[in-house]
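Aim 2 progress update. The chain analyzed this quarter is reproduced below.
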Amino acid sequence: MTLDSIPNPDLAITYDDKPRWEVSDHRRQGWHNLHTTTRYGMTLRAPGFLPLRKETDWTIGEQSGVARFLAVPHFSAFAVVRGDRVLYEAYAPDFGPEKPHSIQSITKTTLNLMLGRVVAEGLVDLNETVGTYLPEIGSGYATATVKDVANMNVVNDYTEDWSDPNASVFDLDAAIGWRPPREGQEENTIRSFLCGVTGNDLTNHAGDLDYKSANTEVLAWIVERVSGRPLRDWLIEIVEAAGLEGCLHISCDRAGVPVLAGGASLTARDLARYGLLFARGGEGVDGRRVGDATFMAETRSDTSGPSWPTASGYIRYNRQMSTNGTFVGHGGWGGQYLLVNHETDTAVVYFSVLEDRTAEDLEFFAPLVEMMAAVAAK
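Predicted structure tokens:
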């Protein structure tokens, strides 16, 4: 006997070819609860955490730029942490300091730590081709250099246009359990999907950033392959070094591969704790180093990578992070940003959930980053 079933309402495709949790009417709840919505995931927690004490500087909240971004309806959380002190934090009425929030593409910064280690250990040459490390990879990545993949400087047939329902990013979403596969298609894993990405001339002749979340998953696969260590173990090491107080929640595909392109959810304070790893050059609270301090310094100082579109043109993309030569950071789809200033030992976190059609607004990010950079610099 076969019992009837109905589609899970959170994952069912509603309109605009998107699952319910992703469309604007339900997006805020979706971003606040993505760690319990996706089909597969894992939760990691540290045995000890970095204690933070409040030393509130109210003048931060009085700055016009800060006040503007705390007043917008899509705001969720804002935190400024310097060393082990919380200088300022604020939360929306429907959010709070102990609630995890999807950080989307900020998750990509974990690859800066992982890639830095394998490069420092001589396991990966940034100028070598992806096919050298992953001989089974498809034509969309085989002849691209690891450096170009890390810098979002590769052109292939993978597309990440959230306004286009036929974009291949939605097939990647199906492979990571964020939506069902398209009608008539079987469910991929992350890596079977990557092997299917095609391309011819992979050179980015335009010169501007060609942002592809699939690139991050390629790098993660390389790290796992050359190190012989599962990505889960790398993440445990990062969680423990950052001294997270709560849990790192991260999506996986059905094979158990964590989604490093955008699958993590953290509290605002824990994202700041994580960000401070970059301010400390990878020094962990447990005395263990993650990443590589030289690799991080080169990430920050090398502004030769492709630039973001005009609104943020002074920011370059380098080794899975954005930088202007002073700060490093990364944004997340839907309105999140992490910015770290190593000179002031400061991490600034902003969470929000944009409610336009595509959850993308580069003109929103440009002034946000300027505000966060100014706060971190003082």
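The domain at 20-377 is CATH 3.40.710.10 (Beta-lactamase). The longest strand covers residues 75-82. These observations will guide the mutagenesis experiments scheduled for the next reporting period.
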